[in-house]
Each structure stands twice: as C-alpha cells, then as structure tokens.
C-alpha cells in the first residue's frame, strides 16, 4: 500500500509530460534521505517493540511506542523546515536545470516540508508490526491511498470546482492523504489493540528509552541512508543523459517500488519473527523463520522478475504512453528483473539482522555493495564505456545480487543471535 502512492502519482503526473515526471524523480531522490531516516527509526522501533512483546513486557512496548513518535516528530520538523527553505538549491544540485521551474520548486518544497507525514506513517506502522498487528498498519495505508487516489486527478487537472494545480496538486494530494492516514493510526494506537495498550503514564518523555531507540536506530538510519543515497548518486549519473532518461528511470523505479514493497513486507515479517522469538529465548525458531520467509520471497520476486522481463513494454505504456522515455523504462525493468530472485532473499536477510537489533552488519553490507560496487560501476559502464542508462541498470542488478550473497554468508555465522536489545 505504501508503494501505491508512488504509482498513482506517476500515473497522473505522466499526463503532464516528461519534464513533470523528471521533477517527480528528482524530488524522489531528495526524499530518499527522509525515507532513510524513517526506515532506520522504524527498524529500531520494530526491533525494540518485538523484543519486548516476546519478553512479555507489553507496558514497556507501549512506552517505547510513544517515545518513538516523539523522536520521529522532532527529527521530521527539523528536516521539513530545512527542506522547504532549500528546495530550489537542492534541485539545482541534483542537476534539475531548466526543469526546476517555479512549479517544480514549490512541488519539492511541499513534499520535503510535509515529510512528518512520511515519518509518522512509517514509525506508527512499525509499532503495529513490531507488536504483531500488521493488519492495522495495512488499513491505515488503504485509507491514506484512497484519499490520494481521489484528490490526485481533482487537484492536478482542476476537475469540477477544484483549481488546476498541476504538479503542485500532486504534492498537496499526497500530503493530505498521508496526513489523514497518520490521524487514523494515532486513533487506533491510543485506543489500543490486542497486543499493545497505551495509558497516560507513558506520555512523559523518557530519555533512557529515547537513547535506546537512537542507539539501535542510528546504525539503521546510516544503513538506509547509504542505500537510498546511492539512488541519489544513480539519478545524478542518469541526469547527465538528459530529461528523457530521467523520466524513463523514474517510471521504472515507481513500478519497481510497487513490486518491491510487498516483498519488503515479507522482510518486515521476518524482522518481527526474529525479534519476538529472540525475546522468547528461541533463536532456533528465529533462524528457521528467516529461511522459510527467504524461500517465499525468492519465489515471489522471481515471478515479479519474469513479469518485468516479458511484459515490461505493456507495463511502462500505462504510465508513459508512447513517449521516448518508454524504451528506457522497459530496459530498466528487464535488466533488474534478472536478479529479482536474489533480491528477494537479500531483502529478508537484511531485515532479519535489523529485527535482531544487529543494525551494524547490514550497514557494512550496504556500504560495500552500493558505494564500493554499484556507484563506481554505474559511472564506468554508463559514462566511461558509453553504455549510458544500460550500463547504470547493469550495475544496479549486480549490486542486488551481491547483497544477497554477502548477507547469506554472514547470516549463517549466527552472531546476530547474541545481539543485546
């Protein structure tokens, strides 16, 4: 459901032309930093709450949930102010050039300025997942997406009494949708669920718990920052080939996101299972759950990969029509689809480390695979060897395969079973 935001936005914004889609992609690259922080804090939150639930300390899990919301809000406010004020220079730094017109700058400012909705929708859903209440998290995203799907065409194209706002309308629709999703989440959390209860005594600021969240989430934030920032580097390389290449890459990434986030959900399930089983003193069951989930995810991502290889043109046409960016997006899907079974395994293994509270190991793996391998290889193949976007896509596919290989080797050593949380 989180991925539907991306797909819906690119579906409607694609009607505004390649420049608008390119702006969407450039802003996505800047939001990658927000997502990295949100994902890192979410993994620390999931690990702590899952461990406390496994230990039978439900009250401590509720206290951790409130402190996570406080911490995420404080960070998001700082990032939001900075992002809104620096939108234009950030776009210029990303090589947006003439694309960064007034409308594009305002779009980016709204998306960055309203990042607290992204932060909280991730964090609160991490609370529910860590407690084993994933269905509540899903319903919140259903609601948020429904609002976005309704508002996107109304505000972008000015249907009925609504003003025609173009790209800015997409930013407003997405932000409103996420905001209402967060309100729904907070209502469900404060009313309590079967596994986690909140009472007034938990609302006092608890610095020891916040410190514990920062200690575990710090490495996780760095881990995801390394990963998502590499996509910023990739986009910067792609931008040297022109707006059409950026638009094609953006469309492909939106479709890939739609495919990967359900798979990411399986990884989150593995993280919860690992955390709760370690808390219950059952590391054997934690390990077994990871191998079972890895197999399921490998099969799932293999099927997605086949769909991308054989039906890439049809999928891309839904979003780009017959524009020049279509072939680039299709080639990206076909190339990355070749390594999707390995990507499925790698995503589960990485999340298993995080669920155990061992956020350091995935950080090292991401650093090696993304920045030592992927970025230099993308530049070498794309720019130096003249393969352009094809070379970039090959480098991404190889990095995905190496994450699975390195992750599996380290996971089998079993040091993650002894991580203290």
Please provide a brief summary of the model:
With 421 residues, the protein is an all-alpha fold. The protein contains 15 helices and no strands.
Structure explained in plain terms:
The protein is mainly alpha-helical and 421 residues long. The protein has one domain. Helix content is 83%, strand content 0%. It contains 15 helices and no strands. The two termini are 30 Å apart. The mean pLDDT is 89.
Domain count, please report it. 1
Averaged pLDDT:
89
**Secondary-structure element pattern, one letter each:** HHHHHHHHHHHHHHH
**Mass-distribution shape:** globular
- Counted by DSSP, the helix tally is 15
Can you summarize the main beta sheet? none
Q: What is the helical fraction, as a range of percent?
A: over 70%
Helix and strand topology:
Layout: H1 2-13, H2 18-55, H3 58-85, H4 87-93, H5 102-113, H6 115-131, H7 134-157, H8 167-191, H9 207-239, H10 243-279, H11 283-320, H12 325-337, H13 340-355, H14 360-384, H15 389-413
Features:
421 residues, mainly alpha, 15 helices, globular
